[in-house]
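Narrative of activities, Objective 1.

The group set out to show that a structural description can be obtained from nothing but a protein's sequence at a throughput compatible with the screening campaign. Below is one input-output pair from the validation batch, recorded exactly as produced.
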Amino acid sequence: MIYGYARISRPQQSIDRQIRNIKNEYPEAVILQEAYTGTRMDRPEWSKLLRKIKSGDTIVFDSVSRMSRNADEGVEIYFKLYEKGIQLIFLKEHYIDTDVYSENMRDKIEPQGTDEDEIFKGLNNYFRKLAARQIRIAFDQAEKEVQDLRQRTREGIETARLNGKQIGQKPGNKLKIKKETPAKEQILKYSKDFNGSLPDPECIKIIGISRNTYYKYKRDLKVSL
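Output recorded for this entry:
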């Protein structure tokens, strides 16, 4: 059996691209998909897939990050599946497909029944570690990408906050501008239409906001008072 595994972190994201990429290469693949964080391995559809696969089966991923974004767990499950005879294919990282790893291991030096066998054994272990390191690098990169994404998200939220925007508001709600509250307080204080004695042009000059914004805030105040 050939299975395709597609995963997104949140339901709001689109999974279509992953499925399309897998189906383009393996039209016969049975697709399992879910919206679940890649930092955990106990995902419902993933767990279901692990229960049903058997030696000789294949799992196709759009990218190694769809399998796991935790390097330690990703490397661990990679070798567990490999040792069970499961073929793993990563469309964006073919250099760590299990076929490639298996081919590298085929090139090992066979024991000769001589004193040099210990040297050959050491070389074989060295080559295995080199191949395993390539696999770990791919998972490490996937983990780094999600950390970078989170950092960029935090920075974007902080930038929006400093610009006076409310993050996470429902569609249709007005954005709250950082200067709105103090500007309205000054309108109440200086405008002759409220508690002050100044005409509108002088209020606009003192408060330092545009004419349109001033009259908008003024209308808001009249409605709320």
